[in-house]
Amino acid sequence: MKRSVLPGGFSPTFYLAFVACLLFFASTQLLIAPIPLYVEKIGGGPVEVGLAGSAFAISAIVIRPFIGRLSDRRGRRITMIIGTVVFALAPLWYIVSSSVPMLLVGRMFHGIGIAAFTTAYFALLADVTPPSRWGAALGLGGIAAPLATMVASPLGATMTGVRSYQTIFVTASAIALAGLSITLLVKEPRRQEESVPRNGFASIGVLQLVRMRGILAPSLASLTMGLSYGAIYSFLPLFARDRGLGNVGFFFASWSILLVLSRSLAGRLSDRVGRLPIILPMLAALALGLMGLNWTYSFGWLIAMAALQGTGFGGVRVGLDTTVLEAAPASMRGTALSLNYLCFDTGIATGSVLMGFLAASAGFGQVYLLIGGVCLVTLISYGLVMRNYPTTSQTPS
Hints:
There is one protein chain. This protein is mostly helical. It is 77% helix and 0% strand. It has two domains: 12-186, MFS general substrate transporter like domains (Growth Hormone, Chain: A), CATH 1.20.1250; 206-390, MFS general substrate transporter like domains (Growth Hormone, Chain: A, Up-down Bundle), CATH 1.20.1250.20. The longest helix has 31 residues, at 213-243.
């Protein structure tokens, strides 16, 4: 398919989708700080706060396989529209939620939106980009979420206490609507014009898809990525408080900045040298960053671990996503990505629950050491399974 390009080498559709993604994530990141406090305001406690996060993640896990097939059959654009509409409506539901059960229903509905948009978004980026540049495309396209986090999360925290929750929720809804207006401008390529990947399959069954080495191995590695992500975002504030490490916000800011740099640079580099040479050292960096927390007793060391983790996470994530896209038939890219992210979401939920149980007896530091060890095991296993596996960067595009 002939594609018009803008400066940077990507199509207008790519950049429109990027802006839509930026607004989409800004809508939900604005609510990171307000939601737990709102749960307490309407009568909830720590358990209910945890349930609010779990309800969001669980609904995303359940719906992803169906969303993947919808994206493949009905198109990326309509699936992204569904996601943004959900993100526009869910905050309005929170306004009328006078009890925790009502709010939990809204959180489950909200989770459908994240599954719909992200699955279709990355598949669309692949559809409008030559395979030889998929690493660069997913690397650049993937920085929209952390960029949104850097801006919207502090904004939401600032608004909390000086603005009403109703104002915050309406603002989140308005941002999602802005994202919807951009999504409506996206022009999706015609399905019959999509290229067929090097494996030569036009369409296969879901079970056959799951068994493919280029999809199963990265998806299982995504479980480990989700495990580390859930452990960090759920419990690092408590870990930092217990050890007196200062403002944990600087950890997440450093993590996000390095993730942005890592995704964009590692994606482009993987197009040249292959995915595996990027994934393995980045997994090592992530493992060292997690294990190092066990010996972290100063603010400076905490920021160093954040830098290692952000660098490792960003590089591994773009490598795994691109490997899955390369392995999947063009007609099933959405389904393949949904399976990959389903594993990631499952890892997040597992990491949060597992660390909660283990930390009570072993302590946070020891659990981070354990999860870092899991990353090392994943590194070795993935390297053995995927050795000599060709990538687009190693074959003619």
